[in-house]
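Here is an idea for our session: we take a single protein and study its fold together. Which protein we use is up to you, so please pick one and set it down. Once you have written the record down, we can walk along the chain together:
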Amino acid sequence: MKYLLWLLKAAIFFTLFAFALNNQHDATVYFFFGTHWRAPLVLVVLAAFAGGLVVGALGMLPGWWKHRTAAAQLPATASEAPTTTAPAAATAPAAAPSISATDLPAVRQHGL
């Protein structure tokens, strides 16, 4: 299995390397106000890919922070739950604490 993964990685590398060798001619990207950038096509594609990664990660950052703070608050609210006393526990089996939908933080879900 290890050799299969190395073979897959090598195939991906050589495919991308061949793509870079085949796209060395200059491409011009025109911006606003008459500015432009001339670079090999492979660098333009790489810059667009890197820019998309950055924009995508920055777009997901608020959601990550919201979920991280919600996850950090969960153990604090769970430790404040009332404990059962010894006489009540002796007469009835201990029940798992129930968590209702109002106990959890509200998280908006986005559809495509």
The longest helix spans residues 41-79. The helical segments are 2-22, 41-79, 86-91. The chain is about 60% helix and 10% strand.
